[in-house]
């Protein structure tokens, strides 16, 4: 794969193919050991019909190919981090920039592998999957506002672990660097608990949250917001409020009966803990049904 920058205008798959992809996504998410790359590629196929089965296989093979170019057991965590930085950030130029936050393809693994550009979390997925295939002790670290990669033991003293920032081409981070990333992105105070390894399903949910944020800034792309919410709902653990978000998206897209029914179902759930909120949701459902007349 080469680093092209051709315009990206995805076409959604047919309803039949989309249903099959979503079924596979749900099965993978509920498996004993969910495969992060597989989930990200299935997500990409739901977004972009051009990503067919051959394309999914090619993306997996590209991750294998990159892993095969790493040195054999280079040493401890720091040596692994340097090896990934030199290969992916140096030789192949994987990195990110502010412009990547404005592109949907920055959240799709198959496009990130082609463009070698993406959001911090997708570039981290590339680092994780390449390193994992080569046998490195690697995991994702979901710092507030900025995703990075950790090398070494998943717990224990920070000094035994090494952090790298794929968005910055794999720059190795000191503890002070990590603190600056957190405070600079969110204003929050840094806490050691923020260095905990990210579960693969939490990574996928965060990717989908990024897609939803992209679509929210573009009201004309409610189609993207809808599939991102629907995939999020297929994960074993997700915020209950996503059902409310899906219902409102259906109403916005003119599916008034379906949206109203989902609003009413959500009101029943909310009513157990917040009667006033449930009444507000029921009023939204009534307003949606009125639009049918």
UniProtKB/TrEMBL annotation:
Region Disordered, residue ranges:
1-21
Specify the Protein SirB1 N-terminal domain's residue ranges. Answer: 62-209
InterPro entries, per the entry: SirB1_N
One Pfam family of this chain: Transglut_core2
Source taxon at top rank: Bacteria
Give the UniProt family note: Belongs to the UPF0162 family.
What protein name does the entry list? Protein SirB1 N-terminal domain-containing protein
Organism encoding this protein: Streptomyces griseoviridis
Name the lineage.
Answer: Bacteria, Bacillati, Actinomycetota, Actinomycetes, Kitasatosporales
């Amino acid at each position: 794969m080469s680093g092209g920058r051709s315009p990206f205008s995805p076409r959604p798959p047919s309803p039949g193919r989309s249903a099959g992809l979503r079924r596979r996504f749900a099965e993978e998410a509920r498996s004993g050991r969910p495969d992060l790359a597989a989930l990200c590629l299935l997500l990409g196929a739901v977004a972009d019909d051009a990503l067919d089965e051959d394309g999914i296989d090619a993306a997996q093979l590209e991750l294998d190919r990159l892993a095969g170019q790493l040195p054999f057991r280079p040493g401890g965590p720091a040596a692994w981090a340097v090896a990934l930085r030199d290969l992916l950030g140096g030789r192949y130029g994987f990195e990110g920039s502010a412009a990547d936050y404005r592109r949907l393809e920055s959240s799709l693994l198959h496009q990130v592998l082609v463009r070698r550009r993406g959001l911090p979390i997708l570039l981290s997925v590339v680092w994780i999957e390449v390193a994992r295939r080569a046998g490195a002790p690697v995991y994702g670290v979901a710092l507030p506002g900025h995703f990075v990669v950790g090398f070494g033991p998943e717990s224990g003293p920070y000094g035994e672990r090494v952090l790298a920032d794929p968005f910055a081409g794999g720059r190795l981070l000191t503890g002070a660097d990590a603190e600056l990333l957190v405070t600079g992105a969110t204003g929050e105070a840094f806490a050691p608990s923020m260095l905990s390894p990210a579960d693969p399903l939490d990574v996928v949910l965060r990717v989908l949250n990024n897609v939803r944020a992209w679509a929210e800034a573009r009201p004309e792309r409610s189609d993207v917001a809808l599939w991102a919410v629907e995939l999020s709902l297929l994960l074993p653990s997700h915020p209950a409020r996503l059902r409310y978000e899906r219902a409102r998206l259906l109403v916005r897209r003119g599916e008034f009966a379906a949206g109203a029914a989902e609003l009413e179902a959500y009101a029943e759930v909310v009513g157990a803990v917040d009667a006033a909120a449930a009444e507000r949701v029921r009023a939204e459902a009534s307003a949606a049904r009125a639009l049918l007349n």
